[in-house]
Amino acid sequence: MTIESVRQKFERDLLRLPNVVSVGVGATTDGRPVIQVGVTRKVPASRLRRDEVVPSSLGGYQVEVVELGQPTAESEEGQDGR
Amino acid sequence: MGVDREMLLSQEAAVTLEEAHAAAVDHILNRESRRPNVVGVAVGKKWTNGQPTKEPAVLILVTHKVKPAEALPPAARIPERVPDTDTVTDVYTVGHLFAGQHQPAPHYGSQIVQQNMPPMPDLYAAPVAVPARPARSRPAKGGHSVGHMAVTAGTIATAVYDFLLDATATPPVSGIGIPGRFYLLSNNHVLANSNDAAIGDSILQPGPFDGGTDPADRIGSLTRYIPLAFEPDIPRDQHDNLVDAAIAEARFDDIDREVRWIGKLRAWQPRAKVTVGTLVQKTGRTTNYTVGRITAVNATVDVGYGGGRVARLRDQILTTNMSAPGDSGSLVSTLDGVAVGLLCAGSPQATVANQIEHVRSLLRVEVAELMGE
């Protein structure tokens, strides 16, 4: 399976995990494609229950967890939305 | 993939929490009662002694915690529960989230300044310097302030025109002929007030937050926008948002497709050729000229739109942080001037942009005559 089809297959489940805000396709520094999971903040695996932890690989592709914070629309004072 | 449903919020709890979140946004992020250091509100679980509990909580995001709470005046303390609800609060340190800043940030001169910005030394320290408000400009270029009359301010991406004869979305081909109309391109949430505007509404340059008034600073009128699906109206699993985009017709003489500091875009990049690792640039109303790197493509991202609304956007481009509130609508391009994305959201760590191919084909407007290679 292509990395994009694997990403699509697991997207909805990943986005239901606590703190997860994005699921995309990224790359390692040496250029290998990875499934990139964005979280509002990283939490040590020891603080999460086993099934809350983002898997380290899916469908044969490495999964990379990156800390994104909370994405918000960026009009001026975007948090208020006005 | 197995997901432990027990640790996830039940439907009922999620609804309650959504309401509490909206109440917290109203009360705690409210202009009049904004507390020092508070930069945002989120939902999650109460943490006690470094461990998550099962109790849903509204998280109050702060730049830094002040202990003991008694060091703060009573009005500045975070209440134990969200006002008018039974939902508990939890205070969570996130540093400086640009989206939540009420005051204009002291200085957004460069990316380096942002990243190295030290923690605020004093709760009540005055801003170091207030930047000049972005100005009125005719013709207005990409990178200038713009906004619907009911919106604060965002950024003009560039000027565009209706597809010419023979132009098609699939396959993506530009046409030949005489354009009927010319437009400013920006976001739905900048030009169409997040679906709440009416076609024909006044678009101001600069945006209202930057001093623009109607009709003196009217540059055009809202022509079309791609509606966004939002939670709580529509569950996010059912969203099919590809772009946050809108156009406003303007007089040809009042607009310019050049982007400040970048110039005219020489081409636009088909989505299949937008790749991770590419360096990109943008000019925006708030952080001016910035450079970033694409870190992910095909990204599905849950974006907060204020007031508890969330839109799930798919097929997005993520970059390293290259923006702040007010930069929404900026055109993201490669360093050699090929348009790749329409900036719409961000966080302290990342910037989110729509694929320019989707913007082009959904709005049926031409951004540049050549395609990137």
Describe the model:
The complex is a heterodimer of chains A (82) and B (373). Chain A contains 1 helix and 5 strands; from the N terminus they run αβββββ. With 82 residues, chain A is an alpha+beta fold. Chain A has a 4-stranded mixed β-sheet, with helices on one face. Residues 78-82 of chain A have low confidence and may be disordered. Chain B has 373 residues and is mainly β. Helix content of chain B is 9%, strand content 34%. An 8-stranded antiparallel β-sheet of chain B has the order 6-5-9-10-11-8-7-20. Chain B has a 6-stranded antiparallel β-barrel with strand order 14-15-16-19-18-17. The two termini of chain B are 38 Å apart. The relative contact order of chain B is 0.14. The interface between A and B is large, with 49 and 75 residues. Strand 1 of chain A pairs antiparallel with strand 15 of chain B.
List the helices and strands and how they pair.
The complex is a heterodimer of chains A (82) and B (373).
Chain A: H1 3-16, E1 20-27, E2 33-39, E3 57-58, E4 61-67, E5 72-73
Parallel strand pairs in A: 2-4
Antiparallel strand pairs in A: 1-2, 3-4
Chain B: H1 11-28, E1 38-48, E2 51-62, E3 88-93, H2 111-115, E4 140-142, E5 145-148, E6 154-155, E7 158-162, E8 182-186, H3 188-191, E9 202-204, E10 218-225, E11 246-250, E12 255-259, E13 267-268, E14 279-284, E15 288-304, E16 310-320, E17 331-334, E18 338-346, E19 350-355, H4 356-363, E20 365-366
Parallel strand pairs in B: 2-3, 4-12, 13-18
Antiparallel strand pairs in B: 1-2, 5-6, 5-9, 7-8, 7-20, 8-11, 9-10, 10-11, 14-15, 14-17, 15-16, 16-19, 17-18, 18-19
Primary descriptors:
heterodimer; A: alpha+beta; four-stranded mixed beta sheet; 5 strands; disordered C terminus; B: 373 residues; mainly beta; six-stranded antiparallel barrel; 4 helices; globular; disordered N terminus
